[in-house]
Each structure stands twice: as C-alpha cells, then as structure tokens.
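Box 3.1 A note on notation
Throughout this textbook, protein chains are presented in two layers. The first layer is the amino acid sequence; the second is a token string describing backbone geometry. Keep the layers aligned when reading.
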Amino acid sequence: MRHLRAWLQQGPLAALPPFALDPTGRPCHGPRNGRGPPRPRLRQVLDNQGNMQVAQEMERHKEGTAATRTPAAARPDRFGDALRALGRFCTKLAPALAAALDPTAYCETPVYNPDLCPNMIAAQAKLVYHLNKYYNEKCQARKAAIAKTIREVCKVVSDVLKEVEVQEPRFISSLNEMDNRYEGLEVISPTEFEVVLYLNQMGVFNFVDDGSLPGCAVLKLSDGRKRSMSLWVEFITASGYLSARKIRSRFQTLVAQAVDKCSYRDVVKMVADTSEVKLRIRDRYVVQITPAFKCTGIWPRSAAHWPLPHIPWPGPNRVAEVKAEGFNLLSKECHSLAGKQSSAESDAWVLQFAEAENRLQMGGCRKKCLSILKTLRDRHLELPGQPLNNYHMKTLVSYECEKHPRESDWDESCLGDRLNGILLQLISCLQCRRCPHYFLPNLDLFQGKPHSALENAAKQTWRLAREILTNPKSLEKL
C-alpha cells in the first residue's frame, strides 16, 4: 500500500498502466487471465513487510547459532544436528514466508488479517469511514435535491403528455409514480432527464437483431398481409419496417402543439435544432421524451454472449430475472449510425437495458458505490464536451461486479476498494478512448466524444482518484 501511495503521489498521468481490452472490447481483468497488463493493486498485502520479517528472522538465526556453536569434536551427530537446526529455522521462518508468499497478495480476494497488515486495515477502515460520511452528507443531499427537481419536472411533462393524448390517443402517458419512483424516468444529470413513453401493440412485428447495427435493431412486419392490423400502420415503410424516425417525427409535432396549449406554457418550450423531443423547463432543466416499446420475455441476439461462461457472476437465478425483465426499444438518434443513409438504418430502434441493469446492481454496496460515483461526477467531472455521464459510471459498476463476483467482495468494508477500482478502470477507458457497453460490447459509449474532452476527463479523474486514495479526509471538501 505504501508503494502504491508513493506511486500515486509522484507518478504523472502517463505513469498509469493502461488497461487492455479483450477481443470483444470488454475491459480486461488483469494478467491472471492473460488478457492484459496488471492493474495497480489497491490491496497489496506484502508491502515489503514479509521481506523485512524474513531478513529479521535470518539475522536472529545467525546470531543465535554463533552464540551457541560448539566445537566439532563435541558434535557426535553433525548431520542430525544440522537437520534439527534447519527444522527450528524453518519453524521460525514459516510465518514470514507465509506472509511473503501469500497468493492472496496478488489476487482480488480481500484479506483481513490484523497480524499481517495492520497499516493496510487501518487505511481501509479510514477510507470506508470517510466514504460513508461522504455518502450520508453529499450523496443524500444530491438525491434529495434531484427528487425535488423530478417532482417539479414531472408535473410539467405530465401536463404536456395529457395534451398529446387528447390529440392522439395512441400516445398514452405512462409517466406514473410508484413507490416514490416514476416509471421510465432516467436521471442523466441533476439538470437533464429522459422520460420513456411506452407505446402499445408491437405484436405483428418481428424483432430483427443481426448485429449489423451496433446497439440497434429493427421491427419488421411478420406478414405483409397484417399491415392493416397494426396500430401504427402509417409509420410502416414500403419495405415493411416500423420506422422509429417517422414515429418520433409525428410525436415531436404533437408535443410542440401540446406545449402551446398546456397550463405550463409560460415555463416550458421545445428545444430546437434536434430531431429528438426535448423540453426546456424554467430555463434550467432539459427533459427528453422518447417513445419506446417494452420487450419482456425475450433477449436480443447481440447480447446472447451474456453472461460470460467463465465468470460466476451473476448467479443463474439473477440471470433468469434479468432476461425476463427484457429491454426497451427507443425511438431516438443512434450515434453508432451517424452518417449512414440506409433506410433500414434510419428506421432502427435503439436497445436499452435500464431495468435489467438496475436489477443486476442490487445487493451489497453496489448502489452506494454508484451513488458516490454519480456525486463525484456531478461535482468534479462535469467538463466541457460532456465526456462523462451517469451511464458510464453505471456501466463500469457492472464490469466491476464481473471482476469481483462474490458477494463478500461487495461488503461495506470493501467499498473503498471497489470505488478505487472503478475510478482506475474509468481512467483506462478514457485513455483508450473506448468504453464498451456492458451488454453490447461492440457498442462504444465514447463514440462521437471529442478526443480532447476524453483526455481532459482522464487527467481530472486521475487527480480525483489520487486524492481519494492518498488522503481520504479530502472527501470532506470534494
């Protein structure tokens, strides 16, 4: 731990070993699987303590044998005495060797042995204490402020959607509050939100996901004779595809009309120069409303590799729950298709796994870790070019769950290690300019981000990680 602290305090950003990506684009777990360079160990048990103890034991042994050495004539069984002396030496040396050669010093398994590494345990406890304090003070305050904003924003959005429904009954508002949570609402940042508007009847379409459109899929009529049976018949192309672009265009027109008629028309207006449906509320908040279809009970082919066979997380029961939860198909611009002109590509729907990801990150300190990361991002990583958002943090938490599959790895006492691991992985992704989607690793979440913005974010994240690890008390000011 001392060496890592010194390395963090002295080394420049370039000294950080980059993290490799495996052939599928997923972050590597370290040298144990042969897929990339080792990542800095935050739990280095050895810390030279074992080597020092070995040297001390050897010195004591030399002094002891020098003081008790007898003449050769008085030693009738020199070979037997030598064996016994060697046995005594090995008995004394065993604890030191065990400390020096403990394999857990080089793996991800948490080691809690006060006799082995008291300084490390004290440092861990100190970091966890300050992280919990940070969570209780800063994160909870952030949550309360966002909850208040959400209630204010949802009043306006609900009123607009009611006006839309009056004009076009097929667009029924699904923004309902359940257990102090609005279904379909995602927090992008404290001032930016997305509301998913779930549409009805997708039954006459086939879900086509052949991997040719990263992060996207198309909906094609299962039978041309069923065209008239669809609730969305006028949005079906000549090729038989249900066009996400056409539905979004129609919805945008309806929302623009609703904004002029709703009771909040003095505080809400449409955001111009975009094909997305975005509202600006009180000149402070931006809400994107996205039409979508909810797909439950099926799983996309492009995510069929998940879960990875050699990783024990998540367990089979959780996998079944996640796949049953399904995914959403969103009518929104897909950055991976930018510049492509094919009609099928412009009519494609974006895959979203929000509920599945939420279910995966239940249990242990996962949610707390994500909340701390979001708060740090809001306060210190809101940078020009907007290189980072909350979804990047959520994605890296999922990868960290894979690297630390046991529930004991997500005990409250491991919070500091998990947070530092995610921050270091974030730096790696920023340096590599690639952050693969958790379920769709061929989709790069950094695509379209300016390289200068990613580089600036890497430097800022590096400073943040170094400050937290070398001086946990600094969290009081972060």
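The longest helix spans residues 118-167. The domain at 363-477 is CATH 1.10.1410.40 (Poly(a)-polymerase, middle domain).
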